[in-house]
Each structure stands twice: as C-alpha cells, then as structure tokens.
Amino acid sequence: MKKWFESGPAHAIGDYTFVDFGCGKGRAVLLASEMRFREVVGVELNTGLAELAQENAEVWTKAGKALSPIRIVCGDALELEWPEGPCLLYMYNPFGEQVMRQLVERIQSRFAGRPRDLEVMYQKPEQAVVFGDGFQMVWCEAIAMSEEDRVADPVADPKDESQAYRLRVS
Ligand SMILES: C[S@@+](CC[C@H](N)C(=O)[O-])C[C@H]1O[C@@H](n2cnc3c(N)ncnc32)[C@H](O)[C@@H]1O
Known about the structure:
InterPro entries: Methyltransf_25, SAM-dependent_MTases_sf. Keywords: Methyltransferase, Transferase. This is SAM-dependent methyltransferase. By secondary structure, this protein is of the alpha/beta class. The protein has one domain: Rossmann fold. Helices cover about 30% and strands about 25% of the residues. The protein is built from 5 helices and 7 strands; from the N terminus they run αβαβαββαββαβ. The chain has helices at about 1-5, 25-30, 45-60, 95-110, 145-150; strands spanning about 15-20, 40-45, 70-75, 85-90, 120-125, 135-140, 160-165. The chain has a 7-stranded mixed β-sheet. β2, α3 (about 45-60) and β3 (about 70-75) form a beta-alpha-beta unit. S-adenosylmethionine (SAM) binds near residues 43, 44, 46 and 76.
C-alpha cells in the first residue's frame, strides 16, 4: 500500500473505492479499511467464506479499527455492480486465466476514457499475461512479509511478487 501511495495515484485516497476480488475471509479488506477509502468492498463467490468475511468486518468495525465503510458482496466477481468513481482493485491470485481475461475486458470497458480512475494491485500474479498491451506496469516487486503476516497466512510465500498496473493512455 505504501508503494502504491508513493507511485502517485491521480486522486486522494478518500476518493477511491478499494475492491478485493476474491476476498476470502476478508483479511485484505480489514487491513485496507484501516485507511480512509471512500468504501472497501470484498467480493467472494464462496458463501461460507463471504459469511466469515462479513462477521470479521463487523467485529473489526465494532472494535473501531475500520476507518472506511466495509461492504462484503457474496457473488461472482464478473457480475459486480461497479462502484462509482475511482477504484483501487486488489487481487491475491484469485482466478485462472479464463476468468482473469473476462475480468480485464470488463475493467477496460468500465474505465474506457477515464484511465486516471483505475489502479490495480495484483499479488502472486500467476495470470499477469492478461495485463498485456492495455496496461502500464507501475512496479513489480517481492515485498517482505512481517512475522504477523507469516503467521496469519502460512500459505503465502515472501517470494511472491506484487504488481501494480494503470490503464495505458493511448
Ligand atoms: C487466493 S484466495 C484470496 C483470498 C484473499 N483475497 C486474501 O488475500 O487472503 C482467492 C479467492 O477467490 C475466490 N473466488 C474464486 N472465483 C471467484 C469469482 N468468480 N468471484 C469471486 N470470488 C471468487 C475464492 O473462493 C477464494 O476465496
């Protein structure tokens, strides 16, 4: 997130909606909500995980840790009703190539003519090929994990890359 701030997004943080496609139990959603986004949205297809994400969001909000409103949407990322205004899209390796290609088509059509309103953060980017000609990579780096992260997510590997993209202005 710090890297993203430093890369010079076009708008103030409070103008962006943070969207986690495939939010699981909502850890990234909770952490994002510690910043003052316009809204933090987690989209999750698996009903059980979405319910857990919702419970976690309620606990987090009640504890006063969420500085942004949180919304969990149980459903298919491809059918999300897009928020208005600028978006920061976050993905932790959620989909295979076919779904990623469809998602990128939707992103490109949604943000056509307003490239300054879109930011993408893609962790463990196994389908990075889908961000071909239409996107500009802002950075790509393996970012060290804290001990807390390692304990919270034993599956993640500190060698996993994080990539950030913006729509290419043609
Ligand atoms: C690798 S997990 C990422 C979990 C979480 N974002 C994190 O950082 O810990 C990918 C998640 O995407 C969800 N998913 C898969 N296909 C989906 C779809 N079409 N729409 C929404 N979520 C989906 C899976 O159920 C899974 O919870």
